Structure formats: C-alpha cells, structure tokens
C-alpha cells in the first residue's frame, strides 16, 4: 500500500523563539538545527534574516542540512514593488532555498493593522510570492489569522490563499495565529479550502495552543486533507506555544489511522531518539523538562496507581498505549523495583560492570539513586557520577586522591587607575598516596582578560597538581556547565552538571548538589577527575 | 434560548493524586476541595476511602461543600456479594452522597488482570451499582479502558455500560484509561454508545493526555452528546495527566459553539478567579506554574513578536482570542530584541514613563537592549533591569548608592572534630550620599545550618546596611534564582536572573551577566535594590 507523504515544517528557531524567556544564540540555533535535521523534518525555518543581529549572524553561518533551510519574512509593503522592498530583500539575501512569508488574510487586520485596501493586500501577496519564485526560491505563504478571517469574510480569505497559490506558492499554510479556533472548526474550514480549489498536498496547518488544542487542531486539518504540518520542538512558541512536533511525530508514526495512511521523513531509528532530542532542547534552554509531556516526559510511562503497576508487570499493554522504547523513553514502576533492576543491570553492563540478578548491591544502588534524586541529584545525563555511585555500593570505587580543603575568593574593586576589576583566586589541598600538596590559581586582572569566576579558579587549581596522576588528566577539558536551582528534600539546592571531554574522544558528565553553588560544582569536578582516572587506569576494575 | 447543562466532575484529589511526585495531605485536600467548590464544579471526588491512611483521614474531616462529595472505589470482587465486599464497604463507610466505582469493560483486562469470566464481570458491575443505589447513594460507573474495549469487542463493552446503567447508575463514564484514543475515535465511539441506548445526559467522559489530546477528546465526546466532564485542576493525573479543567472550563464558557449551547455551575465571577485557583494548586504542590498554560499561564497573553505587539496596542483582539481579564490573567508586552518602538512605548507607559513617538531616546533604548541581549542579557522576564536600563538612556536613572568593592570567600575544610564543613563569607563596601560603609556576613558552620554559598553571603552583606535607604529594603525577599551559561559575544558568559518580592505584594526580576557567576549575581542584586528604592521613593520621577 502506498502511504501519503506528510511534510514536517519546524519553526522552533522562528516561532519557537517567540516564547517568553527564550533567546537563542546563533550557536544554539546551529545545535538545534542539526538535531532537527537528524530527526528528519523536511523544513527548518531558521528565523527572520535582517530582523535582529542574532538571526542575521545565524543565517551567515548556518549549518548544511538535508532539510530545506527556510528564511521567514513578510509580504512586501504597499506602494513599492517586491524587488524594492528592503525587508523582503534582507530575507532573500540570506540565500536560503526556501522562503516563507506571512501575509494578512483577515479583512479586519488588513484594515486595522496595515491600513491598506483589501485589493492592495491581494497584490502584496501575489507579487511577493511571484518575486520569490522569480528569484528561484521555493515559496511558502503563511496565511495569518486565516481561520478568524474565514469566519469573518470567507470570500476574501479564500481570495488571499488563491493569490498566493496562483503566484506559485509551493505551500499555502493555514495559520490559527491567535490560537482560538477549535479542532472541529479547523477540520471543517480546511475541508472548505480544499473544495475551493487549493489541493491538500499544497496545504499546510499552523496552530497555537491557546485552548490546549494545538495538536488536535493539527490532526483535524490532516484528517480534512492538509499535508504539511508546522510545529516546534517541545511546543515552544508565542504565548501558549505552537503545535508540539515532539507529540505529533510519534502520533503520526505509531497511532492509527495515521501510521498506515501516512509516511514522513522521520525514520524509526530517529523516533527512538525523540526523548533525547526533547531533553536536549530543555538543556539548551536550561528548562526543567516537563515530567508529564506526552511520549517523552519522565512520567509518561510512570505507573503509580497500585492496580496499574501490578497489571503492568503481567503485561505492559494493559496500561500503555505504545511501548516507551519506541520513543526512547523508559517505563517507571515506583511500586516495584523489578523493572528497575533489569534497567540497572543493563546500565552497569554498559559500563563494563557485571552484576548477578538478585545481588543485594543492586537494591542498594537503586535505593541510593532514589535517595540522592530526592536530595536534588539527577543522573539522566550525569552517567559518570552514576557510575561512581554504583561503584561505591559495589565496593569497586576508585581511591586516587582526597581533597583536604579548598578556598576560593572572588573580588570586585577599583584598581590603582580607578578601573573596576573583578578577580578570582583559589587554593586547593589534595592528598594522594605519596603525600599532600597545595595548588594555587589566581586570575590576575589584565587588559582584555575576563575573570571566569570562582568555579574556573577552583578547576584550574585542582587540576594543576595531582601528583602521580597529573599526566593522566592533562588532556581534560570542561566543555559545558549547567546550573539549576531545584528542590533537595525541603530546601532549595543548586544542582550543577558539568560536561567534560578529553583528547581520546571521550565525553562525560558529572553532577554535584549543594546549597552552595561553588561546592556543588566542586563535587562535579572531583567526580570528573575520578572517572577520567578510572578510564585511563586499566588496573582498576 | 435554553442552554444544555453540562456536569463538571473534578478528580484532582483522586486521579490527580496519581501524578508522579504528588502526595496531598488531608489538610491540602481540604484546601483544594474548598477552591473547587468556590469555582463551581458539580462533583468533587475526594479519594479512595480505606485505600490509604491519608484518604481515610480526609473523608473523616471533609469540608461541607455545595458540590456533591464523591468517594471512589471499585466493583466488588467475584465470589462474594456486594454487601460482603469489605473494600466496597470501606468506600460506603465514608458516607458520601455519591460513590463512583471503576470496573472493567475491556474483555482482555477481565481475562488478564482479573482472571474471571466475562459474565462474572457483568454481575460484579450490576450488583455493585445496585448495592450503592440500595444504600441511597448516587452511583457513578467509571468504565475503565472503555474505548480500547469497544475497539476490541464492542458488544461486550456496551453490555458492561448497560449493566451499570440498568442497575441505576446516574452517570456512566467512558474512560480512556491508557490515554491512547484520538479525539476523532472518541467522538465516533461516544455517538455509537448513545445510539446503543445510553442517553447523553447519563454519559460522562474521562480522558488522559498521553497523545496531548485530553482536552480535545473531551470536547469530541461533548460534541457527540456526552454531558459529564471528568478532569483535574492543571491537568494533574497518572502519567501525562487527566483532561485539564482549567483549560476546559473557559473553553466551554467563552468559546463558540459551546458558550451559547451549554451552561455549567461555574459563574462568570468564579471564572475570573481561574488564574488564581490554578496558581494556588501549584503553590500547594510547590511547583513552578507552567508559563505556557492555556488561559492561565503567565505567558498566555504575552506578545513578544514586534508585529504582534504593535497591533495589540491598536486593538487587543488582533492577537488575543479572549480577553485575559475574563480568566483573571493579564496581558504582557515583554521587551526583547524582537520588539519595536510601540512595544517599548507601551512598556514605558506601564512603568509610568511617558515618551513621545520619535524621541531619540527610544532608538537608544532599543539599541542598548539589542546590544546587551547580544552580550547575553535577557530582558523579557527581567522587567526591573529593563526599566533601569531605559531610565539610564532617558537620564532618569536612580543614584541611591554605589558599590566600591566586594569580596566573597567560599571554603571547604575539616573542622577540629575532623568533619567536613563548608562556609561562605562576604564583605561589601557601599557609598551613599552620607558616606561610605562596609558590611560583613559570614555563614558560620553549625549543626543543621547549611551554607547557602557565595551569592547568599553577598546578598546578606549587601542588604545589611544601606545607610539612609536601609528601612526601605528590609522587606525584600529573594524568591528564585536562575543561572544559565550562554553566549556573550564570542565568549561563554553566565546569566543570572533573580526574582524578588516584598511585603507590599510586589514581585520583580532582574538580570546580571558576567563570565564570573558571582559578579553576574551581584549585578542582579544591585539592580533589584535600585528598583525597589525607586518604587518606594515617590520623589524620584
């Protein structure tokens, strides 16, 4: 049976950036674009070139992608030609293969927001799209406020779509800009659009979650015949967010009637990385992942009710609509550590530690993880700290060095020339099998040298002299540093997760928790060195 | 025109308690029950009396409510009469006017989970419901796994509903227990149930959010004729949660076709308290409210895109599907480098600063925001820092005090008894109009005293003596602290956003950026004090 191809258009980097509190750097945009490409979306909308310095910088250095890279802009203004509109020119200058421009389709907005005639707006749409096509670009038209416009003046709203379609738009996208249209209306109006002569395979849907129906509205449009879906990772977006692709993709790939009717560019293998992709975005944004998120949330397959948990042990399909592995997630059964033990043995085996089923150390490790997660630790990404914890319970923990004390100072003052300077210094005393040694680091203020703060000072001091182990840690690099205030028991504590790499291609992460951010970071630094020494030291099992 | 009455059944205290990490005390249940009653729901399901000590305690002391108080339980087991089933007896002993019992309707579960015959299960349903009715209770039947059951064996699934309905159940509730049924299926199957002879005004709907469609599935059932809605506050519930009543209620009351077709027990005045009710639950659970929550989220009416913000100023209906006041929420026009002049003027006007369109200071402020966002600052939540930045460009910035220097130390060492202790201390010198003063804070280590780290030490020292301003900052509290590593130009920098509150009900946030986390935090602390002094000082314009 031939399946119908659905096109996935991601706007995390454009509409997603409209989320309150979200401000991607160009580097972060590159990282997200690569993840979207690996997932298998068809279009990546990168932003609005020319609208702000970050977007302009990103388009200059954008990564190569299999997905069609798309720049966003708006229809030309009235009273000038498309070729002479400098905003549109700025968008075209980004040299993307596709360009998506937004235009009005609701007569009220043409009047109130633009203050031009309905006829002028139609001309702006058709001439802008024609200009994109003449410039050799694939053109997409975001029909702003389409559903509200259709309800107010269906003839005019449809005329706007026709203007874009006839001028050569590859996709005409029905946007529920204000997010207030309910799924049943979206389905009915999308069907009318197709009846009016715009084929479904040229029709896209763009919804917002203002009534909690963004996903359902998208599905209703697909049911009616629309074949492009616009959405964002984790449902980022203006106000309540856009349709969540992380929810829609597994629904389309795994659930009937979609799974046997449609196909997308997302391969099954990429679907298995969905949970990781979703959490990666939260990491970049330093957001706490939503535990209850469909498919990818930490609680999405957590069975707390006693009746559910006991049935799950007999047969997981009793209380699961899909298998968690299909989206790279895992089942949690808080009442029974059966599932926990096999999970744990797998993780230990991945680290080269073999444990027998029923080994009492397994329960001790699970208890310790549970206790420490209550205290604020998180081991999902900090695998190296998890390995050290497991080794302690199994009595195969390393014992390379001990920290006797540290002291770190940060200071802001005026120097002799009256300039404000910020400086940090640290002193660390460690003992190894051949004695105790003290190291010192000071970030001396000088022209153009920034002070990297107390954690950096501590790291520089700690790694400068580990005696017999020194040669093995010389190639360690700190690659990322994440800080989150979280709940540890009844108190707020700071959780620090640090990523490291070395010259042998290893990458690892550790976690530390304390009310004192410096002490939390220090715990993660010490874990990282221990893990590195363990890996380099073949004599330690 | 007579509107059709919809019944609202809240299960926050029962299914909502199945949320991972949620464990209500009896007192918290009372507080939530009162809020639900004030909102105007028809039924409050309080829990499962006899299943755990908390639920039993709560039913003994439950508050008086206008809503029908409901106890939850399950159908009697096979091989005994309903009167002799001690689990059912435990539920009846709670003496609630209504009792809702869950029973199987999916043949696979009758076999796999219960291990009884299909006929025995039908008997368990009808005898249990008949027993509740004989005891003078209003009986509700939660048809577990109904949609999956209907798809597997429609005849049997419908027979289960009939068994409950004929035995006297006031409501037969179609439960999508695993959350995997899509809205179109829910609508179609609900219509079949009504065709089979169970009237819509005896039919309820209970959905879960495993595909992000719990709200849409509920609306689909209502469209098909179901007249009772089961859900929870903020969508709490097993796995991904239940249908969110906080989203459904305003949709039913404010949006067409629902608003003119149906009525509920929720008065317009109670709808205006919806945002507060939602946040109250988060407060009880010590959760950070979801900014993007439909209707009640802090971002639900935040207009970040420049094009949106300029239209909103002309007419809020251009980008809002309902008025925020209708649900007790407020409009926000945040500042960011996406914003234009009209956005900025609105923002300034909210702060009591009037600027003329075309004032060159407006461009300077926008440029400064853009530059500082490139450096790593973020102003859309840190409104207080934005105000100070704008005031500097407008030359109406405060000049209350200046920091001459600070120095902060964190130390980990062994004390005289060989215990590891972590301590922080800070010294800050500030100058005010009447001279210079130095303050000191040390977090002395003692039993059960945690060291809160260098930022806390700095804050304690800074706020301990501001000379002539001291009395005005005594009521400042630091309520949240967020840290992220971001790109500032070409270097990684640390951005710290700190939330504050005072005893006059004000809440404000500030931002600081530096490669040194302590210095970034310090900048935010200084901004926060300046903003607070500005608000308390009527003489400063």
Give the biggest sheet of chain A. Answer: 8 strands, parallel, barrel
The proportion of residues in beta strands of chain A is 15-25%
Mean pLDDT of chain A, as a whole number? 90
Q: How many structural domains can be distinguished in the coordinates of chain A? A: 3
CATH topology of the largest domain in chain A: TIM Barrel
Largest interface in this structure:
A-B, 112 and 115 residues
Into which percent range does the helicity of residues of chain A fall? 25-40%
Structural class of chain A: alpha/beta
CATH architecture of the largest domain in chain A: Alpha-Beta Barrel
Strand neighbour order, sheet with most strands of chain A: 2-3-4-5-6-7-8-9
Tag the structure with descriptive keywords.
homodimer, 541 residues, alpha/beta, TIM Barrel, Double Stranded RNA Binding Domain, 3 domains, 3-stranded antiparallel sheet, EC 2.3.3.21 (chains A, B), amino-acid biosynthesis (chains A, B), Citramalate synthase (chains A, B)
Could you explain how this protein is built, in words?
- 2 copies of one chain form a homodimer.
- With 541 residues, chain A is of the alpha/beta class.
- Chain A folds into 3 domains: 4-266, TIM Barrel; 306-394, no CATH class; 402-536, Double Stranded RNA Binding Domain (2-Layer Sandwich).
- Helices cover 39% and strands 20% of the residues of chain A.
- Chain A has 20 helices and 16 strands.
- The first copy, chain A, has helices spanning 26-39, 53-60, 86-92, 107-114, 118-134, 146-152, 154-166, 183-195, 214-224, 245-254, 258-261, 268-271, 274-285, 306-314, 338-350, 360-374, 383-394, 453-462, 470-473, 517-536; strands at residues 4-5, 7-10, 43-45, 68-74, 98-104, 138-144, 171-175, 203-206, 228-231, 262-263, 402-414, 420-432, 435-442, 477-488, 491-501, 507-514.
- In chain A, the strands form 4 sheets. Chain A has an 8-stranded parallel beta barrel with strand order 2-3-4-5-6-7-8-9, surrounded by 6 helices.
- In chain A, helix 18 packs parallel to helix 20 (517-536).
- The longest helix of chain A is centred in the last third of the chain and has 20 residues, at 517-536.
- The first copy, chain A, is globular, with a radius of gyration of 28 Å.
- The model of chain A is unreliable at 335-339 (pLDDT under 50).
- At the A-B interface, helix 1, helix 4, helix 9, helix 10 and helix 14 of A face helix 4, helix 9, helix 10, helix 14 and helix 16 of B.
């Amino acid at each position: 049976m031939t399946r119908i191809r659905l096109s996935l258009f991601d706007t995390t980097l454009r509409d997603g950036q409209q989320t309150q509190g979200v401000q991607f750097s160009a580097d972060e945009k590159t990282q997200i674009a690569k993840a979207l490409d690996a997932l298998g979306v068809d279009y990546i909308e990168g932003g609005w070139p020319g609208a702000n310095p970050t977007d302009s910088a990103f388009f200059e250095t954008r990564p190569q992608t299999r997905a069609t890279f798309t720049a966003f802009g708006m229809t030309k203004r009235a009273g000038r030609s498309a070729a002479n509109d400098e905003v549109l020119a700025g968008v075209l200058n980004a040299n993307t293969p596709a360009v998506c421009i937004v235009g009005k389709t609701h007569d009220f907005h043409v009047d109130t927001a633009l203050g031009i005639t309905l006829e002028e707006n139609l001309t702006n749409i058709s001439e802008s799209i024609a200009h994109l096509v003449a410039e050799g670009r694939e053109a997409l038209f975001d029909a702003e406020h389409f559903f509200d416009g259709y309800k107010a003046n269906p003839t005019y709203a449809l005329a706007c779509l026709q203007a874009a379609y006839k001028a050569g738009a590859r996709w005409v996208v029905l946007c529920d800009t204000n997010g207030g249209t309910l799924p049943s209306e979206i389905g009915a109006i999308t069907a009318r659009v197709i009846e009016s002569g715009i084929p479904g395979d040229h029709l896209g849907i763009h919804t917002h979650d203002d009534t909690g129906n963004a996903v359902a509205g998208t599905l209703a449009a697909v049911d009616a015949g629309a074949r492009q879906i616009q959405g964002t990772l984790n449902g980022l977006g203006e106000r309540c967010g856009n349709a969540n692709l992380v929810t829609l993709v597994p629904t389309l790939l795994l659930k009937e009637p979609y799974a046997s009717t449609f196909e997308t560019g997302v391969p099954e293998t990429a679907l298995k990385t969905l949970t990781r992709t979703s959490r990666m975005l939260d990491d970049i944004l330093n957001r706490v992942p939503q535990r209850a998120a469909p498919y990818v949330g930490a609680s999405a397959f957590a069975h707390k009710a006693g009746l559910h948990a006991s049935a799950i042990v007999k047969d997981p399909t009793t209380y699961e609509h899909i298998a968690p592995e299909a989206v790279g997630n895992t089942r949690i059964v808080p009442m029974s550590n059966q599932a926990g033990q096999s999970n744990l043995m797998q993780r230990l085996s991945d680290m080269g530690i073999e444990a027998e089923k029923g080994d009492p150390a397994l329960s001790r490790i699970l208890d310790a993880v549970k206790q420490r997660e209550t205290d604020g630790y998180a081991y999902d990404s900090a695998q190296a700290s998890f390995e050290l914890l497991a080794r302690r319970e199994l009595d195969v923990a390393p014992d390379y060095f001990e920290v006797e004390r540290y002291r770190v100072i940060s200071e802001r003052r005026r120097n002799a020339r009256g300039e404000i300077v910020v400086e940090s210094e640290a002193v660390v005393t460690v003992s190894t099998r051949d004695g105790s040694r003290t190291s010192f680091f000071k970030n001396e203020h000088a022209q153009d040298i920034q002070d990297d703060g107390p954690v950096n000072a501590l790291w520089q001091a700690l790694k400068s002299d580990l005696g017999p182990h020194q040669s093995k840690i010389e190639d360690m690099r700190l690659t990322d540093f994440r800080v989150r205030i979280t709940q540890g028991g009844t108190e707020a504590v700071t959780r620090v997760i640090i990523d490291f790499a070395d010259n042998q291609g290893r990458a690892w992460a550790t976690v530390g928790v304390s009310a004192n951010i410096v002490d939390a970071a220090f715990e993660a630094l010490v874990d990282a060195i221990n893990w590195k020494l363990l890996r380099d030291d073949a004599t330690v099992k």
